[in-house]
Amino acid sequence: MHRHQGLIAGAVDEWEIAAGLEARGVTDGVAHRLRHRDVFGLAEELYARVPRAVRRETGAQEPRERGRLPGRTAALHVLPGALCAVAAATAPAVLAAFVALALWAALRDGPLRVTRAGGATPWTYGLIGFALFGPQTLTALAGDGRFDATAATATFTALLLSLAPAAYCAHWFAVRSRAQLAPSHSLSDFADAVRPRLAAALAGYVLALVGLLRAATALAGPAPIAGPAALGALLFAARLLAVHGHPRRAAAGLAAACAAELLTLAAAPAHLAPPGSSTETIICAVAALALTAQSFRTLAQASAHRPAGEARHNRLRTTEQENLR
Fold it and tell me: Which residues are CB-contacts of 269 (< 8 A; sequence separation ≥ 6)?
């Protein structure tokens, strides 16, 4: 009650307290340790025991979060595609080094940054490596003829250029979801408001990626775009999960996709694997659908959208729980 005095005293009903506690990281497990059946049961007691206060206007005291990206962050997310376009005419090893360096620079800051990635980063680089060299490797192993590396590099450049719209869509979704915490009076109301925003963020990124891929094929020649589009959707869904507190689920989806691609490489000499572009499309599309379904279930929870500054409160809450034990 002392920790969340302002939230409890200013709430209009138990639902608002439950939503606020969820947003601050209080789960049903915490409620069980406090001898309540769930977060709502804990909210009912808090609502009954704390006197009502005059409801404060949060908009007048808290600065509104900006919906657009800072210039430095936007530049970092444009960097991988720009370096890939410049290095496309160099040797494959040089191109791979440029891409790895640029991705590291882009993902270390901004809305696609994950402090504790849960092991997702190695799998991300594995999927990127397969997108860059996998189709031509499968073609060579299966002996199915020549592979147009120029067009493939162009689609890969478009994939890297899509980091900028991915960052914007992720930031937009985070800001709009956190803004919904205050007006929501129940967890179900919050979930109903967040799911359309999540769908809009996913659709916006996929549309931007498809547009970039079509532009790349128009400039460099015909090339399959379904595989890179599925890979982009997979990576975007995984990053959303990781950024909003579920890095292990994101890593599991990426690891499964990497394992499936390695199996296709092993089966290519025996002609047991489909063509390179089809392999990437099937594997990444299935994994992207699985992670997207996870996103609609987990990112609709208020606990996935903790306001800025809640990390300190979470550390204090963990210490308090340990002292109670």
Answer: 141, 142
Q: Which is nearest to 46 in space by CA: 81, 79, 15?
A: 15
Query: What is the tens place of the pLDDT at every residue in 9-32?
Result: 877 777 778 878 887 888 888 888
Phi, psi of 203 (to 5 degrees): -65, -40
CB-CB neighbours of 88 under 10 Å = 16
Euclidean distance between CA atoms 305 and 283, whole angstroms: 30
- The tens digit of pLDDT for each residue in 90-143 reads 666 677 677 777 667 666 665 666 655 555 667 887 888 788 777 777 766 666
Nearest residue to 125 via CA among 140, 103, 151, 156: 103
Extract the tokens encoding 170.
Answer: 């992720």
Identify the three-state secondary structure at position 182. coil
Return the closest-CA partner of residue 303 out of 249, 246, 238, 252.
Answer: 246
Q: Which two tokens stand for residue 280?
A: 């990437």
Q: Is the pLDDT of residue 187 over 70?
A: yes
Determine contact, residues 170/239, Cβ cutoff 8 Å.
yes
